Amino acid sequence: MDHNGFASKDIQTVRKVVFMISALVCVLLLTTVIGGYVYIRSALQPVDPEDKKTVQVSIPIGSSVSDIAAILEKKGIIKSAAVFRYYVKFKNHADFQAGNYQLTRSMTLEEIISSLKTGKVMREMKLKITIPEGKQLTQIATIIAQKTGYKQEQVMNQLNDRAYIQELIKKYPMVLSPDILNKNIRYPLEGYLFPATYSFPEEKPPLPAIIEPMIAKTAEVLAKYEEKKTEKGFTPHRLLTMASLIEAEATEKADRQKIASVFYNRLRIGMPLQTDPTVLYALGKHKERVYYEDLKVNSPYNTYIHQGLPPGPIANAGEMSIEAALEPAETGYFYFLATPAGEVIFTSTLAEHNREKAKYIGKE
């Protein structure tokens, strides 16, 4: 028997099979690529270049790009919500405005995007709410109540409604996580209502329509730091918690990055953060000075008796504090002290800190 003949035939057969499979894979890949190209190219074109009939499209306040894409696809203004989302991201489009728009199926994506940025409704805004930096949830609820006529209690009830918060976690997964429902957290949305000015077309919008743009703004700001956040191993919750401590300690003249460095230096050696604003938050009241008796308050927020970060943010943080939390200065400082003039003095040892404290407390 000629074994070599059989072996040669087998090899030829294997080669043919491999060639056929390879050719088939190449054809399938090519078909997929061509199909994908044709699909995307088609999705970038107007739905119907001949259809000039206007369609009423309403974009609610607080809508994300995904929300807008879904609305446009449902109304038949675009062919694909997914392609629209990627197109917007690729072209770096932003600042879409809420409002009622007259759009047509003959519009190009650029024409649609341009229309959605005009925000004609913005000129007719009847309510403006400004949320300053460093405000706590109860203070924000008071601002909303004063501006809208809701009772502060009604606003707080909405902000603490567990079923509503679970809806929000699903709606804003990039910023809200189940961490905010931890039993030790006083108010789940504390620190998540971004400090900015918000405008509304009604004098008294439904509370979710007021709250959600503030969460969407937090998500938008954090998205800018996604790379740094991942690099540092921060969840949004931990980042906003640290940023809130920096915000609470910062004065106008303070170097937030140096304040951040003190906190990180303490965390690194297992030293409690010992920051007074967490004690005041635990006490639930504002005081000009924290006394030794206050430092014993039994609360998971008290960073004098608990190591590490508190369970969650103690206020809302501005962008400068978020940046400082992500990029602290490199220092050897472990202490800082705010003087009556608003200056912040940084020191490396407890002896130096006590000396500065005695000097400035003596001046008060």
TrEMBL record:
Membrane topology: Single-pass membrane protein
Keyword Transmembrane among record annotations: yes
Nucleus in keyword set: no
Catalytic activity from the UniProt record: a peptidoglycan chain = a peptidoglycan chain with N-acetyl-1,6-anhydromuramyl-[peptide] at the reducing end + a peptidoglycan chain with N-acetylglucosamine at the non-reducing end
Site (Important for catalytic activity) residue list: 249
EC main group: lyase
Coiled coil regions, renumbered to chain: none
Pfam families tied to this protein: YceG
Localization, UniProt: Cell membrane
InterPro entries on file: MLTG-like
Record CDD domains: MltG_like
Domain of life: Bacteria
Keyword annotations of the record: Cell membrane, Cell wall biogenesis/degradation, Lyase, Membrane, Transmembrane, Transmembrane helix
Membrane-spanning parts: 17-40
Its EC number(s): 4.2.2.29
Family (UniProt): Belongs to the transglycosylase MltG family.
Function: Functions as a peptidoglycan terminase that cleaves nascent peptidoglycan strands endolytically to terminate their elongation.
PANTHER family: ENDOLYTIC MUREIN TRANSGLYCOSYLASE
HAMAP family according to UniProt: MltG (MF_02065)
Name of the protein in its database record: Endolytic murein transglycosylase
Encoding gene, per UniProt annotation: mltG
